[in-house]
Design goal:
The chain is about 55% helix and about 10% strand. By secondary structure, the protein is mainly alpha-helical. It has three domains: about 60 residues, no CATH class; about 80 residues; about 130 residues, P-loop containing nucleotide triphosphate hydrolases (Rossmann fold), CATH 3.40.50.300. The strands form three sheets. A three-stranded parallel β-sheet has the order 3-4-5. A two-stranded antiparallel ribbon has the order 1-2. A two-stranded antiparallel ribbon has the order 6-7. Helix 5 packs across helix 6.
C-alpha cells in the first residue's frame, strides 16, 4: 500500500461522513505504510535507503517486526511460567507442611501395621505408592518431594522394625513352637508375627481412614486380600461390644472403644500369643475392667496372654504375676 492509496481511502471516508476529523490533512494521519519489496531486492537495503532519504520515518522490516513480537511473547510466556512455578512451589510447600503435621499419626499407623505382621516390603510398597502419587501430581517438583517422602518414611520403617521380636537379645535364644525367632529372615519373621502373635499396643493405633471393621480385618488383608475373614471379624466385634460401630471411623470412638477394637484386631488371626502393652492406660474403671475381662477370656480360650501394666486390678485376672523393681523381675 502506498501513500496515494492511503490518501484516497481517507478522502473517500470523509466524503461518506465516516471520518471524524474533517479538516485534517491526509498526510498527517497516515501512521504506517507497508512496502512490498520486489524480487531481487534486499529488504534491509531498501529500509536503509528509506531512512536516508525520508526524514521522520521509522522503518522496520517484517523479519524484525516478527522477531519483536516473538520477543514480547517470550517475555509474557516467561512471566506466566514463573507464576505457574511459584504457585506450584507454594502448593508443594503446603503439601510438605501437611505431610509433616501427619508424621506422628503415620508413625503410629506404621508401627501398628508392623505389629500385625507387615513385612518391610509391604511397608515400602505403601511408601512408594504414596510417593509416586505425589510425583504424578507434582511433576518435577513432585520428584523432589518423592525424595523427601522416601527419606522421611525410611525413618518410620526403621523405627517400626523394632516392633514385635525384631530387637536381638543380648544372649540366648527365643523359641516359638520350636522356631528360633532370631534365626528367621525378615519376611519369615513378619509372616510368623502375623499368624501367631497378636499385639495390643499402648495408645491409639487405628488407621483413621478405615472403618472399625476394616481396621480389625487388617492383619488378614496384609496377606490375603481375596478372602478376608469378615464373619470372624464381625463376631469379634460383637464379643467386645462394638457391633453397633462396625461402620464407624476411629475418630468417632472413645478411648475404651478403641482399646476394645485393638483387642479384636489382635485376636483376628487366632494367635497363640497376645502381647498387651498398657492396654488400660488412661481408661476409666469401667473400661479398665472390660478390657481386662476380654484378655482373661482370650486366655481361657487358649491364648497365652502377656500383659504389662501399672494397674493393680490386673492381678486378679492373672494366673501368674511378676513385678519389675530396680531392673529385676521377680514372681509375686
Amino acid at each position: 500500500m502506498n501513500f496515494d492509496t492511503c490518501k484516497a481511502l481517507i478522502q473517500a471516508c470523509r466524503e461518506k461522513g465516516m471520518f471524524k476529523y474533517e479538516n485534517l490533512d491526509a498526510d498527517a494521519v497516515v501512521s504506517s505504510v507497508m512496502i512490498r519489496v520486489a524480487p531481487g531486492y534486499d529488504s534491509e537495503a531498501v529500509a536503509d535507503a528509506i531512512r536516508d532519504k525520508v526524514d521522520g520515518v521509522s522503518v522496520a522490516t517484517a523479519t524484525n517486526m516478527v522477531s519483536g513480537i516473538a520477543d514480547s511473547l517470550n517475555r509474557i510466556s516467561g512471566t506466566v511460567s514463573a507464576l505457574i512455578v511459584a504457585f506450584w512451589l507454594l502448593g508443594m510447600l503446603m503439601t510438605v507442611l501437611l505431610f509433616t503435621l501427619m508424621m506422628n499419626a503415620r508413625k503410629r499407623e506404621f508401627a501398628s501395621l508392623r505389629a500385625m505382621g507387615a513385612s518391610r516390603g509391604i511397608l515400602s510398597g505403601i511408601v512408594v505408592r504414596e510417593a509416586l502419587t505425589v510425583n504424578l501430581l507434582g511433576g518435577a517438583i513432585g520428584i523432589l518431594l518423592t525424595g523427601v517422602i522416601l527419606f522421611s518414611f525410611s525413618g518410620l520403617i526403621g523405627e517400626s522394625l523394632g516392633a514385635g521380636f525384631v530387637l536381638t537379645p543380648t544372649s540366648g535364644k527365643v523359641l516359638l513352637d520350636d522356631t528360633d525367632l532370631y534365626a528367621q529372615d525378615e519376611k519369615s519373621l513378619a509372616r510368623l508375627r502375623n499368624e501367631k502373635i497378636g499385639l495390643i499396643p499402648q495408645g491409639h493405633t487405628a488407621l483413621l481412614s478405615l472403618t472399625v471393621l476394616e481396621n480389625v480385618l487388617l492383619p488378614a488383608i496384609l496377606y490375603n486380600k481375596e478372602n478376608p475373614p469378615v464373619d470372624r471379624a464381625k463376631a469379634l466385634l460383637v464379643d467386645v461390644g462394638l457391633e453397633a460401630l462396625m461402620t464407624a471411623k476411629p475418630n468417632e470412638l472413645s478411648g475404651g472403644e478403641l482399646r476394645r477394637m485393638a483387642i479384636a484386631r489382635a485376636m483376628l488371626m487366632r494367635p497363640g500369643i497376645l502381647l498387651a502393652d498398657e492396654p488400660t492406660a488412661g481408661l476409666d474403671n469401667e473400661n479398665t475392667l472390660a478390657v481386662l475381662g476380654l484378655l482373661r477370656k482370650a486366655a481361657d480360650d487358649g491364648a497365652g496372654v502377656l500383659l504389662v501394666t501399672h494397674e493393680n486390678e490386673a492381678a486378679q485376672f492373672a494366673d501368674e504375676v511378676y513385678v519389675m523393681d530396680g531392673g529385676k523381675l521377680s514372681a509375686q
